Amino acid sequence: DEEVASADFVGDVRSSIFDAGAGIELNSNFFKVVSWYDNETGYSNRVVDLMKLMASQA
User: Fold this and answer.
1) Which of these, 11, 4, 8, 5, lies nearest to 38 by C-alpha position?
2) Strand pairing partners for 25?
3) What does pTM read for this prediction?
């Protein structure tokens, strides 16, 4: 597997993509997790989702 970079997620409509290969266990109770996202595209899609939900309940 190749490592990913932020440019790999430009235009991705998902809110966040968990990167299992980038996280580490700091101790048995504490983990560092990494998630990638395109803040403009992901956010915009969530706003559209919210608008659709609101319209369906009107």
Assistant:
1) 11
2) 31
3) 0.68
